[in-house]
Amino acid sequence: MKKLERNLSVVIILLCCVHFRVQSYHEVEDGISRFHFPEGFLFGTSTSSFQRNLSVVIILLCCVHFRVQSYHEVEDGISRFHFPEGFLFGTSTSSFQIEGAPFEDGKGLSNWDVFSHTPGKIKNDENADIADDHYS
């Protein structure tokens, strides 16, 4: 009986994992959606009284763990596979965004410092006098 109960626990955990891996109530990761099934098709699950001994904590941990998006996906379902092979993601920055404080530590004004200090050139007249304080 213990072995059967253990096997059923594994099955329940696996079913729980599959269930909570579903991206939304009608769409799963591989693109299968509710619209792939005939109208009126009913999805369902079941349980029995002797399975209730399974720890609620284990089920909750399982649900939370498998609900977390994988590292290459974001909430809205965009993943690396939506981009062509060889597509490179990139980021950039400039010293203006990082350094700020043009008159400290022997630094001087850049062209952008002059431009950003001219009233009306930048929205809200913001500048980088205080930026990320990268070197602090």
Automatic annotation (TrEMBL):
Keywords, ordered alphabetically: Hydrolase, Signal
Cross-referenced SUPFAM superfamilies: (Trans)glycosidases (SSF51445)
One BP annotation, GO: carbohydrate metabolic process
Signal sequence bounds: 1-24
Molecular function terms, GO-annotated: beta-glucosidase activity
Protein family membership: Belongs to the glycosyl hydrolase 1 family.
Name the record gives this protein: Beta-glucosidase 18
Natural source organism: Mucuna pruriens
